[in-house]
Design goal:
With 156 residues, this protein is an alpha+beta fold. The protein is 42% helix and 22% strand. The protein has a 6-stranded mixed sheet. A hairpin with a 2-residue loop joins β3 and β4. The longest helix is centred in the N-terminal third of the chain and has 31 residues. The protein is elongated, with a radius of gyration of 20 Å.
């Protein structure tokens, strides 16, 4: 699998999410500060709710900006001999019922992207799955969850 193309596609996806989140953040900030959203009585919480929403949108924008920056700075090394899972690796796991693909990324954990006809899920080394995968080699047995075994088929 071409990791450079995968990361490029992921960056396109993250930038698109960032643009949408920026637009939503601007809209919610405008709603929170609009004179029409001023409370009409002590039970009217529209302004307060709008400010909470604006704050959440601002956090999402910051999170996406950090993810874009982290993936732009990610160095994609060629696979090494005796390939072990590291930051930037694409891992192919075989379970009894399916084949799963994971990208070990510096951020944006949980993001799913279609690439070369495969669904790839981004996981980070900070996640429980990422912690288990780091340092694994092709052919290693792997336990996704208790009782649910897999095998590391390929690392690229």
């Amino acid at each position: 699998m071409n990791r450079s193309a995968l990361i490029s596609a992921l960056l396109t996806h993250l930038r698109s999410e960032l643009a949408a989140s920026l637009q939503a953040a601007r809209a919610t900030a405008a709603a929170a500060t609009d004179a029409d959203s001023k409370a009409e009585n002590k039970y009217d919480t529209r302004n307060l709710e709008a400010s909470y929403l604006a704050r959440g949108q601002a956090f999402r924008v910051a999170e996406l900006q950090e993810a874009v920056s982290a993936f732009e700075d990610l160095e994609v090394h060629p696979p090494a001999v005796g390939k072990t899972v590291r930051l930037g690796s694409v891992v192919k796991l075989q379970t009894p019922t399916e084949v799963l693909f994971y990208l070990i990324g510096p951020a944006a954990g949980g993001t799913e992207i279609m690439h070369e006809g495969q669904e790839i899920l981004v996981t980070t080394p900070a996640s429980p799955l990422g912690q288990k995968l780091m340092g694994c080699k092709a052919g290693d047995p792997f336990e996704l969850r208790p009782g649910w075994r897999a095998k590391v088929l390929e690392i690229s």
